[in-house]
Description:
Blueprint: H1 2-7, H2 24-52, H3 58-85, E1 89-90, E2 93-94, H4 103-106, H5 117-136, H6 145-167, H7 183-201, H8 206-210, H9 217-236, H10 244-272, H11 277-291, H12 300-324, H13 326-330, H14 337-355, H15 358-364, H16 376-381, H17 388-422, H18 431-436, H19 438-442
Antiparallel strand pairs: 1-2
Helix pairs in contact: 2-3, 2-5, 2-9, 3-5, 3-6, 5-7, 6-7, 6-17, 7-14, 7-17, 9-10, 9-11, 10-11, 10-12, 11-12, 11-14, 12-14, 14-17
Amino acid sequence: MSETITSLSPGLLPDEASPGWLNKGDNAWQLTAAALVGLQSVPGLVILYGSMVKKKWAVNSAFMALYAFAAVLICWVLWAHQLSFGDKRMGITGRPNLSSVTQKYLLEQLHNKMIPKADYVFYQFAFAAITVVLLGGSLLGRMNFYAWMVFVPLWLTFSYTVGAYTIWGEGFLSQHIIDFSGGYVIHLSSGVAGFTAAFWVGPRHDNDRNHFPPNNIIHMMAGAGFLWMGWSGFNGGSPLAANEIASLAVLNTHLCTATSVLVWMFLDLIFFAKSSVVGAIQGMMTGLVCITPAAGIVDSWAAMLMGVLAGSIPWYTMMVLHKKITFFQQVDDTLGVFHTHAVAGLLGGLSSGMLAKPSLVNLFYNSETSQQGPGLLYSIINTNEAFYVYDGLTQMGYQIVGAVFIAAWNVVVTSLVCKVVSLFVELKMHEDDLEIGDDAVHGEEVYALWGDGQKDPQLRSLTPRIPAFFRRT
Length: 473
């Protein structure tokens, strides 16, 4: 006993070192998982965006991701976390509570988990941040950076928080829908919102849209690597404990992703005679997205089956349907976020409703308060319970309702946010700025070691727009 006491801080008894409800293993894993998710955005998507675009847009694209990460953190801590997960209802969101930034709140136990609320606030911030950054992938190469600065907090506040509250908080779907780590809350919403925003912002410069090669494929692979490895925290952190579900979620994540990469590569090889690095990264992304809503509640064979679906169906929508459907051609989705996130996220959500294993669902969800049912496949093959087929069909119904709600909400709210922002500043850069790129927007070039002394004219896109009702007649 004396050795234990002397190893602690002076005056601190062993039972005072941490509260009795705190599990240090769970706490350590949750902080690690949150850091891994954060690394997916910074530097993961910063590197990926900065290298996946044309050279003249590298700085601007990377900076959009960096800005969004910082802006979301401030908004999240001050009000967005409570809108998403607040205990007091305010219509379709929680009610903001300024006490959520105090020590008393942040160091309290998180419901029935063995971690403090501060862990959860930071973990969910990392989710919110990557959602906004992924959305931005649809807008690279032409959105006015100053419009983006306004768009980010507005979209987070009025769109993301509603989806999070509806499915993960106290909303009307929270006790019914299966969304393990955000196939709907994060990926379907970012894909639909990104595509919608791309419609309102408008297309890139004609030269950019017709010729937009990545400026550094090796760096692109490095950024993609941060995403792949960081996804261990993305899905592994959702149980909020270092338990068996977390372990299964991590393994299934990588199994699905590896399968999807190989399927996408072979499809490229079969139909285009070459396996593309860019294509392999797209396949990696669709695999990661597809397994997200199901990672800890399906068997590993199901995870690999989902990898086959993730590597083939989004490949078809991106490589075939996108070129045939006029509407897809009219909307300039720079990085194909609709296909890699909306399509793959929807696919994962529906696959969850089909393949969720009852015993794993019961382990992850609180059976006393939640009503998530078995996957439809298990309800069909289970011959012992006559009502199981109905339960499986009901669960698929909730998965469809959730997808429709998230998609519809994001179309409407993203459109409204874009219209409001456009009242004050142009959504799209001036055509002259689009021809120059980074140097016009930020006065910096991606591979310049020093300035050339050239003074560019003031950015035309910086000029604020005065709403009509403020103008003098």
